[in-house]
Amino acid sequence: MWTRSSVHLTADLVLAGQWDGRLTAFDRDRDSLDPRWGIMHPGHPVTLGSLEDELVVGSRGEDGTIAAYDLATGEQRWAYETATDIGPPAKDGIFALPYVVALETDPDRGTVYAAARRYERDGADRRWRSTVFAFDADGRVRWRYETDASPIAIDVNETGDRLAVGYNRCMGSHDVGLVVLDTDSGETRWDWDPGTDGDRRVGDVSFDGPHLAVASHGDKRGYLLGPGGEERWRLDLAVETELGDETLYAYPNHVSAIDGRVAFATGNTYAKESRDTDSLHPNEHQLTVVDAAGDPLWTASLDGFAHELTTADDTLVVPCAQHFRTRDSAAHGVRRFDAENGPLEDIPTDGIATAVAADERTIAAVEEPVAYHDETRVRGEYALHTIPIDR
Predict the structure, then answer these.
(1) Cβ(267)–Cβ(285) under 8 Å?
(2) Scanning 85, 233, 274, 348, which has the fewest C-beta atoms within 10 Å of its C-beta?
(3) Angle at the Cα of 27 from the Cα atoms of 25 and 28, rounded to 5 degrees
(4) Paired sense of beta strands 342-348 and 333-338, if any
(5) Can you list the domains of the chain with their CATH numbers?
(6) Residue 61 in contact with residue 67, Cβ under 8 Å?
(7) What span, in angstroms and rounded, lies between the C-alpha atoms of 80 and 64?
(8) Is residue 275's pLDDT more than 80?
(9) Which residues neighbour 105 within 8 Å (Cβ) at sequence distance 6 or greater?
């Protein structure tokens, strides 16, 4: 349920990041399995993006490194340690490591945007430190936006002048789930919040023209906001629901807006009082797609936990793990949907599909091995899949 691998497509390459730090570039139209290049990156390469001729990589690691590499050769061009801003890990363990949780590139402006965060806990005292960065193509920091909240997602609009930042945990002085920044200056243009109690706020954000779609952790709904943050509509997704003597809910973890349609993906069921239950929310692990007015077009079961949601033209692609309670390996795989009409195909994997990239020609996915705690066998392997999309 946390990011371990990454994959990215350019016009010529399929690029994969592995948990041990390896970055590998393969020719898309290759005749052999030999990579074009492979390097070791400092930390775990969990977020990837590209500009015209360089790959940009964000890490989870001691230094929270962001680095850029020449796409043709893999030679490093620049690197920046986000721990300089958010601090080094306060203790051992994966969740204490500085984490570049999201990365977006704007090739037209030659700009890289990244959100890095660090978490520390001392008994009941829990704290976040985070910074959103804008980098020029040569690695110079153009601006920083710093808070004591936890960013989860960023997205840049089509005209390149606005950057949306979603915060899923707000436990300090920063008390809004969404800020929209001016990409030239880093100044806040407007903000928005679901207005709910507690520190849970936003799960994901996605621009579609002048509108911004938001998946809300606070009230488990989906929203479409106008250019200044005005609410156009909201949609119940996995809101608190009474089932027997329990109150159940699930978080809307992902949203993608595409040509007037908005897709939301929900996650695991939790019980309000205990966060553990043998029952399932009726809308957990569900993909819901609505039109520009917020009216439902279709829904589909994902059968398991969705690690992300990506789009290519009018196609939605989702890598899925098993249901974390029932652990049905038949759920492992990549699901492809037509944004207008619904399911197209399921691409099964023996292990868990944890990362995906897609364009009009190809789906690229990373499969990871998994061993269920009540079994002795290992399912699947660490593998990169490339699947052509038939049109």
Answers:
(1) yes
(2) 274
(3) 115
(4) antiparallel
(5) 50-388 (2.130.10.10)
(6) no
(7) 8
(8) no
(9) 49, 50, 51, 56, 111, 112, 113
Amino acid, res. 232: R
Q: How confident is the model at residue 1 (pLDDT cuts 50, 70, 90)?
A: low
User: Cα(155)–Cα(165) distance, rounded to whole angstroms?
Assistant: 7
Distance, CA of 145 to CA of 134 (rounded, Å): 9
pLDDT at 329: 86
| Contact call for residues 15 and 7 (beta carbons, < 8 A) | yes
Dihedral of CA 169/174/176/178: which sign? negative
Q: Return the pLDDT at 124.
A: 84
- H/E stretch holding 252 reads strand 246-258
First to last CA, the chain: 32
Is the model's pTM score more than 0.85?
yes
Q: Is 307 exposed, middle or buried, given 0-12, 13-18 or 19+ CB atoms closer than 10 A? A: buried
| CA gap 98, 64 in Å, rounded | 5
Report the percentage of the chain scoring pLDDT > 70.
Answer: 99
Rg (CA), the chain: 20
